[in-house]
């Protein structure tokens, strides 16, 4: 097929019956992207290659598209609305490609020296508006386009025209590059170069030197990709919106160094329609245009050398009405956003491990962007290695059936279909065999979110709380929240050892009143009153000052400790936090039967566990026979045992005392 499309200087189309009709713009555009990934603080780069060609106005619909982080954006001239869109574009996507074209009615002819014409075009058309920009606005621009289509220069009428155009760009490209921009050459109208296959190839041959010069300056070239038959057939669109593929097939065979030359489709869309609304897409309905754009975008993504396509046009609501994208801009914005490829999720933050029961730890963390689920990991050693103990689709997890007195170190990672994030911060907790809760508040340090309560209301303050007077205080957040009620409320802590001895630490700070006598209340533990007309402020000596009241009690027959806060002589009772800690008997090295002495009975059990040095003992009945730091029971363990041997009913030496496990 022979294709020859030309235009008048005014920008009105001239349709040749021997080629596809085309609207050559008086207002053209350059588009460019070659985007890598976005900065870490911004959204992942979209796979869509669609963007906007801006003219005159920066509309609300165009703003939606720009805020969707497109890869490419084009502005016509440097007036305020164009620069506003450019600033937003680069703010949203610092790695995006911005193309600038300057409109001019100026023209040159083949009788003039092309090098002179290039210098004149730079000095009189491009340089003045560019030099008028601030340094910040100059830095926004990636590519600078030259003459649009065939409006200002000889172009594709003959091989001689193409040779003139080639010489023009050999001179113009370094002028653009020396000013700090990438040159974007030729701006070829759809269906061009025209002529027979041999004529087309001869014209491509003619411009190869200029393309190589542009590539040497990290530049590219431009083609205008319109569909005229509104087709989704590649074999048909290879003459229209996808005609550029013919050129790259030729480059691959004859000029392989140009096979990856960036191509910017600086105008694109639908052209050549017949109807009252003009030649653009608006002669038809938006649904059909959207359907075609979806197809075209997918085809561009198949061609790695295509930077993108800026759709003509957004902003000129009158002169180019039939091409105006405002009606479809909301769809385009969503299409760009929905084309972001999935990425591994962000790292979870603010992991907190809290005591949630005698053998239970409650974990909570903040949302990780992109997470579908979370892996919960645990280690007995700070820093790992960690073992995955479970998964969660929520922001919390309960780790149960743990060992009283043991210390656990936790991390959490986020997971989605693409992969797994790095681990979160590590959070550490030591199980006390009881509970730690933050009355009226969320998890803080070893204190779990307020639960196990019956009745009451919550109150919080942002005032700082002095914890300096408390040994082993709770985190300040515990004292900044409270549970209160009128006349009473109760906490019931289950699953304790029936008859087992526990230390109860009641945490308080007066965060509401500032003088004594305003609040006096009573506290009972398992029915026994432990505080009567208790005045927090009087006891602490100041408002917003932490205190702890400590008591020893036994769990009842049901394995519960019940704490009741009730009204006294003034106002309402309150609680800041509660700790319940199991009082475990001491553990001595060599006390295999755990009767608080090391005697003949222990020796009999120990002797049965002896192995040869270097051979691990795996019998679970021998758990108390490992007295040194290895997994055998040998002569070294025997020497430790003999040092701790005390006799029946005699307490072993203090040097044999170990922490409970």
Q: Structural class of the secondary structure composition?
A: alpha/beta
Largest sheet: 8 strands, parallel, barrel
Share in β-strands: 25-35%
Count of separate DSSP helical elements:
14
Rg over alpha carbons:
39 Å
How many individual β-strands?
Answer: 32
Distance between the termini: 87 Å
| Oligomerization category of the chains in this entry | single chain
Shape descriptor: elongated
Question: Helical percent range?
Answer: 10-25%
Overall mean pLDDT score? 91
The poorly predicted ranges are 1-42
Q: Strand order, main sheet: write it out.
A: 3-4-5-6-7-8-9-10
What labels would you give this structure?
alpha/beta; 14 helices; 661 residues; disordered N terminus
What would a concise description of this structure say?
This protein has 661 residues and is α/β, with parallel strands linked by helices.
Characterise this structure:
The protein is an alpha/beta fold. It is built from 14 helices and 32 strands. The strands form 8 sheets. The protein has an 8-stranded parallel barrel, surrounded by 5 helices. The radius of gyration is 39 Å and the shape is elongated.
Q: What order do the helices and strands come in, and which of them pair?
A:
Blueprint: E1 6-7, E2 13-14, E3 50-54, H1 60-66, E4 72-76, H2 80-92, E5 97-101, H3 114-131, H4 135-138, E6 143-145, H5 159-178, E7 182-188, H6 197-216, E8 220-227, H7 234-237, H8 244-254, E9 263-270, H9 286-300, E10 306-314, H10 329-338, E11 352-357, E12 360-364, E13 373-379, E14 387-392, E15 396-399, E16 407-415, E17 427-430, E18 435-438, E19 448-449, E20 453-454, E21 457-460, H11 476-479, E22 481-484, E23 488-493, E24 501-508, E25 520-525, E26 528-534, H12 536-540, E27 547-554, E28 561-570, E29 574-575, E30 577-582, E31 587-588, H13 600-608, H14 635-644, E32 657-658
Parallel strand pairs: 3-4, 3-10, 4-5, 5-6, 6-7, 7-8, 8-9, 9-10, 18-19
Antiparallel strand pairs: 1-2, 11-12, 12-15, 13-14, 13-16, 16-17, 18-30, 20-23, 21-22, 22-29, 23-28, 24-27, 24-30, 25-26, 25-28, 31-32
């Amino acid at each position: 097929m022979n294709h020859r499309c030309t235009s008048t200087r005014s920008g009105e189309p001239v349709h040749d019956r021997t080629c596809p009709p085309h609207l050559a713009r008086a207002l053209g555009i350059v588009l460019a992207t070659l985007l890598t990934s976005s900065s870490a603080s911004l959204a992942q780069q979209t796979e869509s290659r669609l963007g906007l060609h801006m003219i005159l106005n920066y509309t609300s619909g165009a703003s939606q598209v720009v805020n969707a982080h497109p890869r490419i954006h084009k502005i016509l001239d440097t007036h305020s609305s164009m620069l506003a869109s450019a600033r937003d574009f680069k703010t949203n996507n610092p790695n995006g490609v911005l193309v600038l074209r300057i409109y001019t009615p100026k023209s040159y002819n083949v009788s003039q020296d092309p090098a002179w014409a290039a210098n004149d075009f730079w000095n009189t058309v491009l340089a003045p508006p560019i030099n008028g920009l601030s340094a910040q606005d100059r830095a926004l621009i990636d590519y600078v386009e030259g003459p649009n289509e065939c409006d200002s220069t000889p172009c594709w009428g003959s091989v001689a025209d193409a040779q003139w155009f080639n010489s023009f760009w050999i001179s113009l490209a370094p002028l653009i590059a020396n000013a700090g921009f990438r040159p974007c050459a030729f701006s070829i109208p759809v269906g061009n170069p025209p002529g027979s296959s041999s004529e087309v190839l001869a014209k491509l041959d003619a411009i190869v030197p200029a393309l190589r010069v542009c590539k040497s300056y990290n530049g590219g070239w431009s083609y205008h990709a319109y569909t005229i038959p509104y087709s989704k057939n590649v074999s048909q669109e290879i003459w229209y919106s996808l005609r550029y593929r013919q050129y790259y097939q030729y480059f691959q065979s004859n000029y392989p160094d140009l096979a990856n030359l960036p191509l910017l489709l600086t105008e694109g869309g639908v052209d050549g329609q017949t109807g009252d609304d003009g030649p653009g897409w608006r002669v038809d309905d938006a649904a059909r245009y959207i359907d075609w754009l979806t197809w075209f975008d997918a085809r561009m993504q198949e061609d790695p050398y295509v930077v993108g396509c800026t759709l003509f046009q957004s902003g000129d609501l009158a002169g180019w009405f039939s091409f105006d994208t405002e009606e479809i801009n909301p769809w385009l914005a969503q299409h760009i956003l929905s084309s972001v490829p999935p990425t591994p999720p962000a790292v979870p933050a603010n992991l907190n491990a809290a005591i949630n029961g005698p053998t239970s730890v409650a974990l909570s963390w903040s949302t990780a962007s992109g997470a579908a689920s979370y892996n919960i990991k645990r280690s007995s050693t700070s820093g790992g290695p960690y073992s995955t103990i479970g998964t969660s689709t929520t922001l919390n997890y309960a780790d149960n059936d743990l060992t009283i007195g043991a210390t656990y170190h936790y991390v959490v990672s986020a997971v989605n279909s693409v992969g797994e994030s790095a681990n979160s911060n590590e959070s550490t907790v030591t199980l006390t065999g009881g509970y730690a809760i933050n009355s009226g508040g969320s998890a803080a340090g070893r204190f779990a979110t307020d639960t196990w309560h019956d009745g009451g209301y919550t109150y919080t303050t942002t005032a700082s709380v002095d914890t300096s007077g408390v040994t082993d205080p709770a985190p300040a957040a515990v004292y900044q929240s409270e549970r209160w009620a009128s006349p009473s409320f109760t906490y019931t802590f289950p699953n304790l050892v029936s008859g087992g001895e526990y230390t109860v630490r009641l945490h308080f700070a007066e965060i509401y009143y500032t003088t004594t006598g305003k609040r006096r209340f009573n506290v009972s533990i398992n029915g026994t009153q432990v505080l009567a007309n208790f005045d927090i402020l009087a006891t602490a000596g100041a408002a917003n000052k932490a205190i702890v009241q400590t008591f020893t009690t036994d769990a009842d027959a049901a394995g519960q400790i019940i704490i009741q806060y009730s009204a006294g002589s003034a106002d309402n009772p309150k609680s800041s936090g509660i700790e319940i800690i199991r009082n475990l008997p001491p553990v001595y090295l060599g006390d295999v039967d755990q009767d608080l002495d090391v005697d003949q009975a222990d020796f009999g059990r120990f002797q049965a566990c002896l192995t040869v040095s270097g051979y691990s003992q795996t019998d679970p009945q021998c758990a108390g026979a490992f007295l040194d730091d290895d997994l055998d029971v040998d002569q070294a363990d025997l020497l430790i045992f003999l040092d701790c041997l005390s006799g029946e009913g005699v307490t072993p030496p203090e040097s044999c005392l170990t922490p409970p496990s």
